[in-house]
Known about the structure:
This protein has helices at residues 21-32, 46-55, 72-82, 97-105, 119-131, 165-174, 189-195, and strands spanning 10-17, 40-43, 56-64, 87-92, 111-114. By secondary structure, it is an alpha/beta fold. Strands 2-1-3-4-5 form a five-stranded parallel beta sheet, sandwiched between helices.
Amino acid sequence: FPMLETQPTSVLDLVLVDDDEAARNSLAVVLEGSEFVSRYLLAENTKEAREILKTHRVKCVVCSEALPGESGVDFLTFVSDAQPQSRRVLIADLADGELLSKAINSAKVDHVFIKPIDGSDFRTVTNGLIRVSSIADDDGTDFQDFEVKDWLLADSGGQTGLGDTGVLEALEDITEGDGDLVLVVDDLRGMRDLIR
């Protein structure tokens, strides 16, 4: 899936993608009473949703599976590549094992709703996903100069901790320069990317 051509600048709490106008409007009413959803947009199809993603970072994307042109799982797979920090929710008509497997493994969805959707459950799940989102609200902070440095610790005979010479040498190498320094040490690339 292609990445977004431009970097989105503003933040939305949620984008809801559903071609069924009645279902879309019904869930929008539920969102109106939500504690954590104050900025959201509705999209009738994935083309509209892709346009929204070009200009907005989105904390949570909710998408129906049954859409004309592109399935919800395929769109959420695109979202997982284009905005990996966005939480993803799929709405399916049936509990199909193959669909659920693809949703979890390809689109990396956080939750799947099977129709009909209970409004209270929908609000609870979306509130929770937005609350734990790692996407910060617009606060004017500019992270363009933020850089993650990949480095390996020198072999210290199985020792770990700041007393290791490998750690101290690595710290000495990267502490040159002006400004604040944040050191991220994690052996899982996914965690380093998430912190980024």
